[in-house]
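thoughts on my protein:
***
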Amino acid sequence: MGEKSQVAVAECQSYSLDEVLKATQTCMDFLGGLASYINPGDTVLLKPNLLQAKPPEEYITTHPALVESVINLVRDAGGIPHVGDSPGAFDRNMEKYWNITGLTEVCGRLDVELVNFETAGSYQKTRNGHDYHIAKPVLDADLVINLPKIKTHSLTTFTCTIKNLYGTVPGFTKVEYHKQAPQPSQFAERVVDIFAVNQPCLHIVDGVIGMEGSGPSSGDPRKLGMILAGEDGVALDSFITHILGRNPLEVPTNRIAYEQGLGQADLGKIKVWGNAPVIDNFKWPPKLSSTLEMIPGPLARGLMKFWWTRPAIYPDKCNQCKRCQESCPTGALKRPGTLTEDQKAYIPEFDYDYCINCLCCMEMCPQKAVYHDQSLIYRLISRFSNSP
């Protein structure tokens, strides 16, 4: 397979199957071909991003054209493809996710098994003193092909190859890890642990249309025009954040994975095949509480009374689906809320004494009704900061 820290990139301007397949094949040719990763008869688990039950044209999930392209290439190499994920929501009705995201049609037509991580059981893995439950089909596979989508992330700054493997953790366990690691850097360490216990993987990235701003679900679509691939997920995430205008080591998951020797973040040591597009003025999310992590604890606790950014709800967008309440790891949204004059049901209210700013509510809200509320001091400091 040659040098591990290689990144392959190919132009792809649309989600037409022919164009996506051609770009994916070009990337794999740069890396020596998919057959160099697969032995005939190998079980290959394809892990897309199915964050929400949303159609492909909302650009929240991995596009089915990429999934279909990789299925075809896996079969050409002699592998047996399966497709599976555990979405960000805690809904065990996986058929709804597969139907709406387009995977039922693709996998049904191609006779590929869709694997339900929620019911398949899990193995316990331990890393850095923490126990993690990983879906059995992931660790039982001969090869995992990670199929992330390029998006910003309001908690971890960026989500792609490293963060997408968080979806190998079934169900409510994902919420518990948020609760155990409330600070962004702490949570990033957990994400990196899960990435590490899932290796080795091959990563093929949906970068045709990504998401900028308040991702991974409330941001804006951004055409990027590329497919990328590589064995080193850290190198891929680092290269992608670089071409999007960010220092790779400013992304906590990149930095932590690099410091732990899980991949390459030094751009000078990453071999790039193909030509990356020029992407200007990519919009990143606010840094949230990352600045407070650098302030001594007692002072930070005092400043928190005046310096904060936290989730809040637009009443006119909320349809009272309760998804935010279901996804909250600390029960900060269990209060009944208030009934406004133009609403027929109660709008959830935050109890900020319990809120850990994990933004699961924002991530899972299907109406994009959750937003960043910021104090005046936060806005003033941010205006003079160097954050993008």
Notes: The radius of gyration is 20 Å. The chain is about 30% helix and 20% strand. The CA atoms of residues 43 and 142 lie 5 Å apart. The first strand starts at residue 6 and ends at 11.
